[in-house]
Amino acid sequence: MYAPISAQKQEARVAALEAEIAGLEKELGENENPEVIVKDVIRLLHRYNEAKDATQILIGRLATLKQTTVRQIHEDLDLRDSD
C-alpha cells in the first residue's frame, strides 16, 4: 500500500522535477540532440577499446620477445591496472 500524498506535495515534486529537467537541458545545450551525443560517445568508446586491445596485443608480443610476463611489462612501463 502507498501512503497518500497531498496534492500540494505532489505539485511541489512535479515542479522540482520540471526545474531539474530544465537545468539538465540547459547544461546539455538547447539545440543538442541526446541521441547524437550518445552515438558519438559509443563511437569514441569503440575507438578507445580497439586501441587498448591493439596495445595489449603489442605488450603481449613484447613480453614474449623479452621472455617475461605481461604483468612485468606493465610494471616496467608504469602502467596501472586502471589504464
TrEMBL record:
InterPro entries documented for this protein: DNA-repair_Swi5
GO cellular component, one term: Swi5-Swi2 complex
Pfam families with a match to the protein in the record: Swi5 (PF07061)
Keyword DNA repair: yes
Keywords: DNA damage, DNA repair
Gene3D superfamilies: 1.20.5.170
Record bears the keyword Signal: no
GO biological process: meiotic DNA recombinase assembly involved in reciprocal meiotic recombination; meiotic joint molecule formation
Family: Belongs to the SWI5/SAE3 family.
PANTHER family per record: DNA REPAIR PROTEIN SWI5 HOMOLOG
Name of protein: DNA repair protein
Organism of origin: Favolaschia claudopus
